[in-house]
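Summarise this fold before class:
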Amino acid sequence: MRYEGSIYRPPSEAKSYILQVTLGCSHNQCTFCSMYKDKTFRVKSIDEIFEDLKLARDYYSKIERIFLADGDALVLKTETLIKILKEIKRLFPECKRVGIYANPGDLLRKSLEDLLQLKELGLDIIYLGVESGSDIVLKNIKKGFSREEIIDSGKKSKKAGISLSVTLISGIGGKKYWKEHAVESARVVNSINPDYVSLLTLLLEEGTELYNTYKKGDFEVLSPEEIAVETKLFLENTKLKNCIFRSNHASNYISLKGILSQNKEKLINEIDDALIDNVFKDERFRSL
């Protein structure tokens, strides 16, 4: 398949065909992020997109899931997304799900009627990078949106009946704002009640603005133990219904998964057990 630059997708889209409909991220200013720095944002032409779909149809005998990349493909005009989804239905009648990355602005710009139409044509899940529920942290990382805008965008996806998966980043508030990050992030997801909540752990990468801030001594990274305590505080403050929770990405120090609030106490107990057993003293965590 034809791709330009590095390709990223959610872990749950590992078996999906990745269809690149945009290049890069339209925002691309978040201080912690090193993704999409190798390309300038642009929207691919509909002819390019259709040609890629035709190539995929010729190559694969069966495609049940398709993921629309790059960073916030929902930035496309609704009429363009409609054309793409209709072509997917025509070429891949066996496709059961189409997923897409979005930022809050993409959802806020779309009308509810737009989203309902996209849902009807097969858009089944939106991945929304929330990162934090704290306005202070959001401003510090240059997310570009407030907590209220994030809440409104998430609610709109839910109202349209499109499954919503939100991602938060453990440790993104540093030692100064870890409590606020944990508590306010819980409040945001409580307000939205998404279908999925995933925690990644902050990994500082050279070349990012946040890494430079850290090197200057203006950002203190949480230890693995402190990340665990932060995660516990986040979970304690959640009030979710039938939300699938995952903190089992390669970046996470311990693997946690369950349904909130059904498995809330179990997850908290797992963190307590790990802290009591000093599992974070393991040397393998010290190199992260």
